[in-house]
Amino acid sequence: MVNWNKSFNYIFLFILLFGISCTSTDYSPKPRGFFRIVFPETQYVSDAPIGCPFSFERPIYANLTDTPDKEQHPCWKNIDFPQFNARLHLSYFAIGPHATLTQLTEDARTFAFKHTAKATAIDQAKIYYPENDVFGLTYTIEGNTASSFQFFVSDSTRHYLRGALYFNEKPNLDSIQPVLAFLKTDVEHLISTVRWK
Known about the structure:
By secondary structure, this protein is of the alpha+beta class.
């Protein structure tokens, strides 16, 4: 025997839900959304870390800080970009018998190519500013790697400076690409303004 009260309730509920779900007539797909990133105006300030034989220009929205091991390495510095949650690590070495130019450049190459497992490409470009005795290489590392841009510069006889840009986030190139392009311009400006003392 069929319980008509229960059946009537189910049919009424079905018609009610069907009627409510069909009220919208807009079937167009939603546009893809992206985070809005506001880049600051690019201005630079000259920095000459105390006691270090080099100077450069950094963006005004970045902070120059010491590394935790500043007692052992007083000329290792960080340039923090707090707005972008990024940091440029700078390591300075005096070229000599304990740290030859060949060893240091090979170390820079090794550090860059450690990202080979996750990198889709590693592009090298020459740095050449003979009027300032600044020579070196940049490494642009494509893919979801910890560091997407590294470099070293030297005067080939006494000074050597290495830099690596890191984001304090899980590497995802699609997400950081606009910020990386913006900060890469700043790092390239820093490289072009390196002066040895």
